[in-house]
Amino acid sequence: MYGIFSYDIASPRVGLKQDDYILDLEVVALLGYFNDLKIDPTVFAQPVLNDFIALGKPAHRAIRQRLNELVSSGTPAFSDVHDQVFIHESRVQMYLPVHIGDYTDFYAGIHHAENVGRMFRPTSDPLLPNYKQLPVAYHGRASSIVVSGTPIRRPKGQFLHEGKPVFGPSEALDFELELGLIIGKNNPLGESISVEEAEDYIFGVTLFNDWSARDIQRWEYQPLGPFLGKNFASSLSAWVMPFDELESFRVAGPPQDPIPLPYLQTTGEKHFSFELEVCLQPAEGEKICICRSNARYLYWNFAQMIAHHTVGGCNLNIGDVLATGTISGSTPGSYGSLLELSWNGERPLHLSETTTRTFLADGDTITLHGWGFLNGVRVDLGDVTGTIYS
Amino acid sequence: MYGIFSYDIASPRVGLKQDDYILDLEVVALLGYFNDLKIDPTVFAQPVLNDFIALGKPAHRAIRQRLNELVSSGTPAFSDVHDQVFIHESRVQMYLPVHIGDYTDFYAGIHHAENVGRMFRPTSDPLLPNYKQLPVAYHGRASSIVVSGTPIRRPKGQFLHEGKPVFGPSEALDFELELGLIIGKNNPLGESISVEEAEDYIFGVTLFNDWSARDIQRWEYQPLGPFLGKNFASSLSAWVMPFDELESFRVAGPPQDPIPLPYLQTTGEKHFSFELEVCLQPAEGEKICICRSNARYLYWNFAQMIAHHTVGGCNLNIGDVLATGTISGSTPGSYGSLLELSWNGERPLHLSETTTRTFLADGDTITLHGWGFLNGVRVDLGDVTGTIYS
C-alpha cells in the first residue's frame, strides 16, 4: 500500500508499507534503484500521491516489480542501506494521501439502502424505483476529508425537536463503513468511460468513514440531498491499496435484476471480497467490534460506478475519491452504521453491562478495518480511525 | 472586475477590466507601480486568481486605490506605457478565473423553488417545510465548471420514457440563471463563520449558469439529490466583480417569516440589486431575451448562505464557488430556467413565428447578463455564455 509520510526532519514523501516498516521511495529513488526505469525521482518527494499516480500503471508495475526484486529474500540490494530506506512505522507521521479535487459518494450498499427505506418510508417499498436501474450517488465535500487519526469535531446544526427546528450539537452522530476508490487517470470533460475501460481508471482502494449527523441530515435533505449532515468531516485511510493487487480478491457480485441498461452491463468478477469490521472504543471501557461486513455485499460494482459517473461527460481527475456508500450485510451484526445497528435509536447497542450507544458519544473512537485473504494469508487494507470531540 | 487572460505570447495573468481594455497587472507590477505596496509581483503572473485573492482585502483595496490614481484623468503615469498595460479585449483569451476546490449550489431563489414544487408536487405546499428555516443547498461538481464561452456538450444519460428507463441524449436540457460567490478567505475545519463575519469571506461575485438536464435529474435525484443531471457542465463568467465594489447595490431582502434561528439572523441591507437577463440565440434566427430577473428576489442572502454552510464546521477555501440557485422573479417573464418558462414543456416559448423552445436545441447559445446602477450609470457584471452541441 502507498501513502504519504514524514519522519524526523524528512518532509512528506511517498512510502510503501511493508509490514511494520515504510519503504521511503524518495530515498530508494535517490540511491539510484529506479534509474533505468526513467522515473523522475521528484514524484516521490511530494506531499500527495497525485504525481506518482500520474506516472500511470505501467510505471507503477515496473516500480513494484523492482521493489519486489530488491526486498525478496536472497537479494542483498537493500542490506547495506536498510536503515536508510526502511522507516519503522512508530517514527512516522501520516498525511492525507491524495489531493482530492472532487469527492462522490455512491449509495451502492443495497442492504443499507433497504434499511434506511424501511426506517423512513415504512409504508412503501424500501428501495426507490431508480435504485436497481442506476448507481445512485451525490457529490460530497472534498475540503473536509481528513486522514485517519484526525479528531472529529461533533458538528452543530439545525434539526427538529418535537417538530420544531432547533440549533445545537448533533444528537445523532454516526459513522458509515465505506470503501473509497482513488481515481488514477483523467478523462476529458464531455467524454465518457465505458464499463470495459472503467477499472483502468482506478489507482487504488482505501477504507473510508463518511461521518454523518443523522438529525441534521434528516431535516435538511429534501429535495436536494445531504449537505451539512455530511460535510463536517469524512475520514480516509492513510494507505491506498493499488488496484493491481486486488486480483485475487475478485468475486462475482449479486445477480442484478432487472438487468441494467447496456452502458451498465458488466461481465466476469467485478466485485471484491474484503472482510470489513467496525470497532468502537469508548473513552472509558473496552473496544468492542460492532459490525462485521464484506465489500461483496455492494449491489453495484466499481466499473459500473465509474461508467455511470462519466456517462454524461463528467470529467474525473487523478486523486478524486469515489466512495461506495455504506456497506451493510443482510443481518443486524453486519450493519455498517449506528443508524442501522440501533435501528434509528430504537434498539440501543450494549457495549458492556453499563454502556450503551444509539449514536456516538464524545470520546468514542471508531476504527474501520478491512482485509482479504491471499493464498490463505491475511492481507490488510489500511485502517481508518477517528475520535469524536466537542 | 478581475479575470485571468492571455494575449500574443504572454502567459495567463491577472487583469482588471476597464471598459473594452484589460489592464495587465503583471506588467503594471513589473513596471514598479506597486513597489511601495510590498506586493509580490508573482501573484499577478498566475493562471488563476487564488494567490491574488489570498493577499486579502486590505491589499486589494491598496491596489485598487493605486490603480484608480493611475488611470484617473490628469495623471500622466500610464501615458508613456499605455500600450504595454492596456490590452484591447479583442486580443485576449480568457480563462476560468479561479481554481475551484469545492462548489456548492444553494436553492435560495424562492420563486424558483415554488415553481418547481408546483410542477412536481402539485397537490401539496410548493415549499417543503425546511425551505424558510435554512438555506437548502447541495454539493456540486467542481471539475466540470468551465469559463464563459466554452461549448457545452449535450449530456447523454438515463431517464424515463413512458415510465421505462432509457438511455440517450438529454431531451430536456436547460440553463439556470444564478450568481456565484467566489470565496476570499479560508476558515479552519471545525470552525464556523458567523453571519456578522460572513461577507468578509466573499472575494467577489460572478454570473453563473448551472446547466441542467431535467429528464436525467428527475429520474436520478431521489433520495440523494442531483448528480448527472447537473455535473456535465456549469459555466462561470470570466470576470469577478470584487465584493467591495457592490456597496451601492445593497437593498433590503424580502421579509423572512418565520424569523430564522439566531445563527441565521441578519440586519441591514444584505441583498443586492442586480438586473439579470437571459438571452437565447438559436443557430439560425435572432437573439431573443427570454428572462428578466433581479438578484434581490433571492430569499436568503449571501451572509446567511456562508453562515449556514460553515455552522457545522465545514471549511471553505479561497476560490470555492457558492452559487445562489436559480433566481426567478414572481412573474413568468422573470423565470430563470426553461423548466419554468415552458412550465415543464407544457407551454412552448415562441422565439419567432416559426421557432419555439421547450428546452434547449443544439446550436442554441444562452447568455446571462447582469448589471447594476451606480449614480445612474450602468455597471456590468461579466456575461456568461455557452453554446450547446452534441
How would you describe this protein?
- Two copies of one chain form a homodimer.
- The first copy, chain A, is globular and about 65 Å long.
- The mean pLDDT of chain A is 96.
- In chain A, the strands form seven sheets. In chain A, strands 6, 7, 8, 13, 14, 16, 17 and 22 form an eight-stranded mixed sheet that branches. In chain A, strands 4-3-2-1-5 form a five-stranded antiparallel sheet.
- Chain A has helices spanning 25-30, 50-54, 57-71, 82-85, 110-120, 195-198, 214-220, 302-310, 338-341; strands at residues 2-7, 10-18, 21-24, 86-88, 92-95, 103-106, 137-140, 145-147, 152-153, 156-161, 164-169, 173-174, 177-183, 202-209, 212-213, 234-236, 241-242, 250-251, 271-272, 275-281, 288-294, 321-323, 349-350, 356-357, 365-374, 377-389.
- The first copy, chain A, is built from nine helices and 26 strands.
- Chain A is of the alpha+beta class.
- The longest helix of chain A has 15 residues, at 57-71.
- Chain A starts with a strand and ends with a strand.
- Chain A folds into two domains: 2-94, Fumarylacetoacetase, N-terminal domain (SH3 type barrels, Roll); 103-389, Fumarylacetoacetate hydrolase, domain 2 (Alpha-Beta Complex), CATH 3.90.850.10.
- In chain A, 17% of the residues lie in helices and 32% in strands.
